[in-house]
Predict the 3D structure of the following.
Amino acid sequence: MYTVIINMKIIIKITIILLLFIIPVNSEIIKKIQVDGNQRVSSETIKIFTEIELNEDLSTNQLNNVLKILYSTNFFSKVEINVSNNILYISVEENPVIQTLKFEGIKNKRLIKLLNEQVEMREKNSFIENKVKSDEEKIINILRTNGYYFSKVIPKLKNNPNNTVDLIFEIELGDKAYIKKIRFIGDKKIKENKLKKIIISEEAKFWKFISSRKFLDLNRINLDEKLLYNYYRNKGYYNVSVESSSAKVIDESNFELIFNINAGNKYYFGNIDLILPEDYSQESFKKIIDVQNSLEGKIYSLDKIKQILNKIDEIALTKEFEFINAKYQEEIIDNKINLLIKLEESKKFYVERINIFGNYITEESVIRNSLLVDEGDAFNEILVNKSINEVKSKRLFKKVEKTIASGSSDEFKIININVEEQPTGEIFAGAGTGTSGSSVSFGIKENNYLGKGIKVDTNASISDTSLLGRLTINNPNYNNSDKSLITSIEATQIDQMTKFGYKSSKTGFSIGTLFEQYEDIYFSPSISNYLETLKTSETASAAKKKQKGDYFDSSFKYGLTLNKLNQNFQPSSGFKSAFHQTLPIYSDDLSIINKYDFAKYYSPNENAILSFRFLAQSVNSLSGDDVRISKRIYLPSKRLKGFEFGKVGPKDGQDYIGGNYATALNFATTLPGLFKDLESIDFSFFIDAGNVWGVDYSSTIDDSSKIRSSTGLAVDWLTPIGPLSFSFAQPLTKSNSDKTEVFRFDIGTTF
């Protein structure tokens, strides 16, 4: 009997719960909706917001939902709802409208524009009190990003008639936060001056008055950490960790930026194995196997793994292997990392559509012409990623992102590309001085002229002996051809009366192109037309004086360059081989100019770099006339240290006249173990050899068999007033007519 009673109680409870869900609570049929209190938002609009159909039951839950919907519109500060006699009464108080949004205390128009773009509160929008705090935090973050780390923001509200307000953010910028010093602590194992070149942040120096990198920016510091991490991983430090980064206050406007690095031990590549699908031939992947064999036992590097994956990409882009994926696994044994690379076939998809968003200034064709995949093509993840990198390489966008969506059927994909544009204009200037004289340069660049991706560069330079002005226009994808169209107008004046007995004034223009012919091989043909006025000194020989006058040159120039350097600026590995030739089309003195330049770099460890460079040049008359003085060859001082520029080789009387031929060999190695405590100074040992010889007429001196050579020490020092370069050279072999230069220095910077 007891059990039955208990069971009956349970049944009653369940029945009550079910009735609560079945029977409407305080339900009432709504036949009319009446709205009051609204001024700006119409009654009909509010009724639509409620999502209520007339002549339907309205429960308490539905009423609560109406309240939520109306508040979520952000139009109302207060909403009241009640039901009486089948009428739904809605009473509202509207949020005021922002009539004016001001940022007081800031005069920088660029900064004001940035703040207007980032805050949620906008003019003509509803004022929402709880979003003001969020905007205040955004403003502070933006100001800190722009160097105003000590800024303060006070929001104020001014009530106006007609339910409008003025929202004013009073801003006290304070002093800018400068990075006075950058230090690297911990088990860093790499010199500080090398690490400073890796990160984006830089120490505040007076000549860097335009650079924004000298200001403390927490977002930039996060990027610096990633750059340091990747750099160490590429140098074999597999377990590296950037333990912390901190900004230490030095005084009221200066910070010390400190990175704590635990490099760990260095690792090397062990066994590298490649697993292919059963029906794939080993011969097709011979390039990859060659790279594998060359890496075993070498220092571990993420870039080297990418090198293998890039070789796979090259093969994957062939028709036979269009749909493959490469995955790799790493196994650590002692100080070696074994690599297992596995290739798998993937399902076939096709590109249905490519959508591009965010390009408000840049024309869509600029982006589409950079893509290596088109609508209707087979979908290849490798090509898609390469396409995104191509768009990024244009440096027109702050951000380039892609998403892949499903198409209209299972076999189709849609590629969505989102870009965020950035300022593309640049003003630059530079100055320098040295044993050869002083120079000043300046210019303006625009990398996205008219939104077409066209680069416009105008620059000028002035030195003790020359004046140069140049305007260059580069269309990197002329007529959708994937080829650059480069045009330039140039005017130069070179006064070498004192040193070489002549003065040249030249004006003209050129038009040419540049494109990748095949896998890092670049072809650059151009046509140039110039007018030159040549003057000679009063003491010049008869042979030189007869060259005095006006000349017209029309020539065809082309170049072939194979570039395998790991980076174009301060390379540490790889090589570059370049050949250039200039052929006359029409000229007052027909001549052909040849130049071959080769450079090889090797880095046995993270601090030492070995380099070998070779240069060969020639200029020959095709008409039997003397080669013009201004076309003759002089070896640059950097290619033959220990000798004054141009003061080597043939002479005519007292004037050095250059030669028809020149060659130079350069060996150099950095000295990382020298003066370890001098972090900002790099030392290198060098051996230079070279010669200038050959003239078209009988000169006083033409010692064509004499090879000049020198050895010495070079010093590169990052000083508070700019980068300073010294060289101490001792000539080993020379001619009696040569002018030597044991000590040389250059100092200067760009900003």
